Amino acid sequence: MFTINLEKEMRKLLNGDRPTYDTHLVITKLSPGEELVEYAKRNKLDEIIIGAKRRSKVGKLMFGSTAQHVTLNAPCPVVSVK
Questions:
Q1: 75 partner at 20 to 30 Å CA-CA among 41, 46, 57, 69?
Q2: Each residue's pLDDT expressed in tens, for the chain with a length of 82 residues
Q3: Is residue 14 part of a domain?
Q4: Is residue 48 a part of any domain in this protein?
Q5: How many CB atoms lie within 10 A of CB 67?
């Protein structure tokens, strides 16, 4: 399995500086996309960066898409990373 050490990669991009970020565990009845959008609204986020997988149109229709929901409903700019 391929894994990435996110902090190590971020330090490369930031020329060795330590990245700042927060992590949160959320238990909710909302879908992941809905929760991300609500979190962004509550915390007045400036930007969301989200990973997205390529899916067919039928796959999106049948299974939904967290990245698609966030992109369409977020109150701030969203950067999708493939």
A1: 57
A2: 445 676 777 778 777 777 677 777 778 899 989 999 999 999 999 999 887 776 666 655 545 578 888 988 999 999 887 7
A3: yes
A4: yes
A5: 21
